[in-house]
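During the no-cost extension, the postdoctoral fellow (Dr. R.K.) reprocessed legacy sequence entries with the updated structure-token encoder. One reprocessed record is reproduced below for audit purposes.
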Amino acid sequence: MLQRIIFWAFGFYLLTSFISISASQIFLGLSLVAALIFWISRKTWPRWPAFFWALLVYMALSLVAAYFSHSPVTSFRDSRELLLYLIVPLTLAALSSLEKSIWANRLLLISAGANLLYSFFYFFFQASPGERIRGFMGHYMTEAGLLLLFSCLALSLFCFLQSQERIIWGVAFGLTAIALLLTQTRSAWLGLLVGAAIVIYYYRPQLLLILPLLIVLIFVISPSPIKKRALSIFSTKSYSNRIRLEYLRAGIQIIKEYPLFGTGPDTVDVVFKNPKYGLSKEARENVHLHNNLTQIAAERGLPALAAWLIFLGLAFWELLKLLQHRAPSRLFPQAVAGISILLAFFIAGLFEYNFGDSEVVTLFLCLITWPFALNQSLQKNTPYHLEKPQP
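Re-encoded structure tokens follow.
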């Protein structure tokens, strides 16, 4: 009974992950409570991947940084979001069989599909001229972060699934890519470019040769606002690029002043208002440094940044190991998606603080843990021969 509650509550989290922040977190909490009761009653804990240990260290160092914070009350309040990282062992518990993993993918597809319908309806019938597309979550940056993760998953399932279901995932990828383009979020564009390249490399490496041509074609047929936004990537004079350079300089200065524990979680935006950091009036009005590396180091310290980078490195290495011997047909696309999502998220995070967006980071941790849950369930329940599915 408890295992069913864990899965269905987790499934409803996936079903609402693109639709409602409050609903998704409520279902996630219900699933976690059921999982804790299950683990305690059985006196056993899930066999989580090594990267979660590094994430636990990051969590601990974040709490230490909160203790030494400029505003401990603010930092400890912000630290409640660390509980969301428990989605790693929860994913392992919820997706305990191949069948559950398949259904979970479908529930996430439904959620993303509902969001896409709303996004396109809003963009074409309600949005003001020049306004960016947005979904149920409201802000276009959160929309872009979620779409980036889902697009990598959809492309991998389209390329590697061996059933008719792959067509649905192909359509989902196409629509998601269009919506992501309309968010005009350049960091997510770069992330998708890297993520898609990873999937294509594992699918048919020779297709990477036509990727630049595809990018040029998309640029040519895109409307003028998209073209201007794309060209601004290479301009150091554009407003957003100039602001990011200001944040980089200020972030480095803050890190030098607070190397061990930073200024404290959720306090950098108060500290960098000090004129000595040289931020313009516009830059001081923002709430973060637009870069995962500088943001984490500035507010939590260099040891926390090291733990975070080790977490990413271990996750990447362990995902690669899942593919070394060619995983079975259902695991292979999920593992490739995990690598694609990891690298896409990291690249996008060089230009945006996406690890601070709770909706995005929760889904990110879920999707990179998913292959490990599927691998454990296959090893436990079904002997199999490792081989790569044929494209």
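The two ends are 39 Å apart (CA to CA). The CA atoms of residues 292 and 383 lie 41 Å apart. The remaining legacy entries will be reprocessed before the final report is submitted.
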